[in-house]
Amino acid sequence: MKTAAFIALVLCCAAVPAQQSDLDTATAQACTATLLGDRDGLRSARAMLERIESHWQSAGLGTTGLADNVATLANVLIHGRTPAFTQAQRRIARSANTPEERALLRALGDSLPWPTITRLRWENRYNRAAGTVNWVIRRAQQLLTGQFQAFFQMGNDVVFAQPRLRRATTRERKIFVLAERLASEAPGTVEALRARDEARTLASKIERARRRDHLRRIRVAQEQGQWETAVALAQGGLTLWPSDDDFERLLRESDHRIGLRTRSWQRSLEVDPVADANLSAEQAGIAAEALRLSLRGRPAQAREALVELARDMPAAPVSDDALLLAAIMEQSMGESASARARLTALSSQDRDSAWIAESLGNSFPFALDHEVEAAMARRRELSRRFVWQGARSVDENLYLASSSAISQGLAAPAALGAFFFIDSAFRGVALAVHNPLGAEAIVDALARLERRQGTLSPELRAMQRDRLRDLGALDRALAVHEELPQPDPGLARRLRSQMARQMLEVARGESNSETQRRMLAHVAETYSGTDAAREALTLMRTSPFPGAHLTAEQVRAEIETLRQAGWPLAPSLTDGRTGNGEIDGVGVTVEPDGTIHYRRRNAEEWEEARAAGGDGARLAAVAAALERQSRAVSALEERERPHVPLEVTGSLGASGIYAVPQLQRFRHVDEDLPLYE
Fold first, then answer.
1. Is 460 found in the same domain as 320?
2. Which of 333, 359, 412, 516 lies at 20 to 30 Å from 373 by C-alpha?
3. pLDDT reported for residue 523
4. 61 within some domain
């Protein structure tokens, strides 16, 4: 159907109004509707194909058979996605007219939950088995060659592998999503019941991993001094796991450290009521009202209520709490002098002086310059820890150290020392170039100081700029730099250049060609004069335009079909000869309006052409259909490519050749698999 002879035969029949583009459009619509479960769209495609069939039969050209195929798909879709669906689409694929159509229809089965789950299950089981077999082969080979420390290494592997075995793999996450979908779309079947049980098992596994990861993120935020982040994460954890004591405890710790004594005190009273407070009903009401006022952002009224409570109970332990909370309210209103005087009076009365000192130093740092100093000290501590320990977890460091000790034996101390020294040196160099550790806490401390004082000194402003630069917030860093009394123009140029480079890298990674060109144009216009802007202009000249993309080989193979749809380029551009201005290997792009963008071989500038006859939409539809067919054929070839399950790994050493056979594991070949990470 795609051959030039067939196209010529169709053109000779004037009674045939249905063109190749109509057939491509109907086929594509049927495939898309089947993938989306759109019955109305499938019926519309079926009606269009039936009209094409009638025209072809009236012209004596026979039938395409696609209308019957789509009717079968519609019937299967109406009765639910069962194994019959897979069998039907496989049968249709074998009986379709061309390899391209067979690839399009066969792709349906691999895009639906049923065959996808079956394949993923097999790959997941195979990967687990292959990993175990490879581990056994590797350790057995070590034992056979006299490396008896493999006995100890096997035990070491088992000990450190156990926590990781409880984590759900990416394939298991995708199986979970598809199993839930299958159980809801085909209820009552044996496979649906199996999928539902499988989904429950994987859900509990994923839930445990999510909880561990969430707790780990909170602890990391606390270690880095990012207390606001820790509070937000802990609150999110309580939303997901309301009855979990770990999140409640971490939230109270974070509240306490950033000085939110009102919320911390409230949670303490809710979780562990203070039995010896001796509050009357009226006084308890005053305390509760003060807490409500403070949490609603009304610190002045809360302060008055707390002072009244302390006045009524001068000898009660809660009096110190009330006065400290009143000082916190004053600090939040910007009355630092009054808050400091109140705290000084409390300290002079020696009422639980240790607790007051802890409150002054940690719970709520009233001297905000001290808060900045504490954040800077924390940054230095984190930097030292990273240089000596790195970003690896404790388990990873212990596993590496124990593995090295087992393999090196008596030479382990020297080997570990050399490795530790070299690794630390590299990490130190990395921090000298770029050190974001603790920068967020310093920026937050400086922001709070600015809110209280109304301004920052030039030295603190420069520190704020540098830490924002460490965090990658270059636009904010440039704005802060321009507020300095005497900003360095050279540094401003470097910041603008870094901003342009940052945006250029984002544009390079953009998959949508239209969005990419807009981003490149923004970089070239906004940051003109920088190296990144010049690179953006070069990329705009060389990157393809938005639309259907066809390679030079595709154009040559389908030139007759394209010409019938209004292809305007001269034959010399696509005849395969290199000496007459042939289009280059990038190919051509056809926009939705039919505009063609192409580039001649060894040229940098793009050229444009319009569809012949002004029917640009028709040419764009044909080009889009050819692009879809090419993708389907590529996917089919990838799936049917022979898979060699064995590989040999090894190295050449002083004792000879070291080689170990291993089973190859399935890689992440699904384009959407990273979405389930």
1. no
2. 333
3. 86
4. yes
